[in-house]
Amino acid sequence: MKKKIVSGILCVAMVASMLVGCGGSNSDSTESGDAEETTEESSSDGMTEGKNTFVDGGTELSLWTFQELHVGFYTEMADKWNEENPDNPINLTVTTGESHSLQSKLLVACQAGEGTPDMADIEVGYYGSFLKDDYLLPLNDVVEPYEDEVVMSRITMYGKDDNWYGIDFHLGASVCYYNMDIMNEAGVDPATIVTWDDYFEAGKTVLEKTGKPMCAVETADLFLPQLMMLEKGAQYVDKDGNPNIDTDEHADVIDFIRKMIDAGICEIAPGGFYHAEEWYGHLNDGGVASLAMPLWYMGRFTDYCPDLEGKMAIYEIPVWNEGDTREVLQGGTGTSVLKFTDKADLAKEFLAFAKLSEEGNKYEWNVLGFDPIRTSLWDDPEITENKDNKFLKYFQTNPFDIIKKNGTDLTAPDISGGYSATYSTLVSTTYSNAFENAIDQDAKELLETEQASIVYDN
Hints:
Layout: H1 8-16, E1 39-42, E2 48-51, E3 59-65, H2 68-84, E4 90-96, H3 99-112, E5 119-123, H4 124-132, H5 140-143, H6 153-156, E6 159-160, E7 163-164, E8 174-179, H7 180-186, H8 196-210, E9 215-217, H9 223-231, H10 248-263, E10 266-268, H11 277-284, E11 290-294, H12 298-304, E12 312-315, E13 333-337, H13 344-356, H14 358-366, H15 381-384, H16 390-394, H17 399-406, H18 419-437, H19 443-453
Parallel strand pairs: 3-4, 3-5, 9-10
Antiparallel strand pairs: 1-2, 2-4, 5-13, 6-7, 8-11, 8-12
Helix pairs in contact: 1-3, 1-18, 7-8, 13-14, 18-19
């Protein structure tokens, strides 16, 4: 394929209008919960700042995030850091703003080599642009002490050449959410659904008995096809980071989703994706029987689907072949230290403390609703059996049962190299063509055309 040369900024701009990976924009993030109150100030450019409790003599550190809920997390963790490290305190300023604007501003600052913060949250769809041009510092030395205590897939995915550059907020384990009012009316037990063929047959029964489709597919995002591809061991980029979407595995996934659409058991998600206002209303009204999404989507139900409280149950995702591992990881935000900082050691140590410690992971679950990457919490009854936790109260089943069953050997997306540019094409044209505009075109031919249209500077 002939590659077209464009700047990193153009690549990011193409992704921006559709990007909703874990993180999303301030107005509609995949993250949820009630953020703890923190001191905030507004600036003339629309940015806001939050600060932890000031400590005289503390080292000034700065962090940029696209998500307001992260401000409370970081300032709280800075206060905890100061409690545990009184001889090395920090005064942390956390700047937040609209996702695309902030990520673009960060990339421009990196390209200029000045004006960057010490640390930054970088959404998964943007991450490859920062990694490709070596704007980040390796975190191996501060992560290694935690290596046996966390799910490393959520760190190694932000890596290159045996170095790790980012730490995620959550496991992001994909599960299947079932509306049990619909499933019970159809007489289908989700526990009996193991393979995608089982899911298809169950969908036919649900449609026949209730008139409701089993699921919906996005045309402006990629969660369902990506999940299915990851289960096949396929990625959107090859081992060298080059766009790689015209594969047999990808064509098989498109054909299977088309088969569900033809049978009436899968519909196009209202609004085009699982984060649209139209979709939330449809979901809340019982418009579909199930949805396959990561566990961080629990917050979408608690925030936007009040009528479904007590009706939804969480089960493992279907797989292609019985016996396959029934879990993959999706979405994400890699928090990183910028190479331009003059406080690298302290920034790295604080970042590891915030994102990998028990204190940090407990906050992420209890307040933000993120499935923790620290495995010790999976067996902590204060976490897994907390009857006051709004996420555990909302659902009929316990998400930690699935997390513990599938363990830590999980497949994560490869976000290296051309992933950002590839993502842009997938969510702007590929899936709208595959499932709406050109649904009769041969899947492999369609993917070859889409592959040739990807704009990527290698």
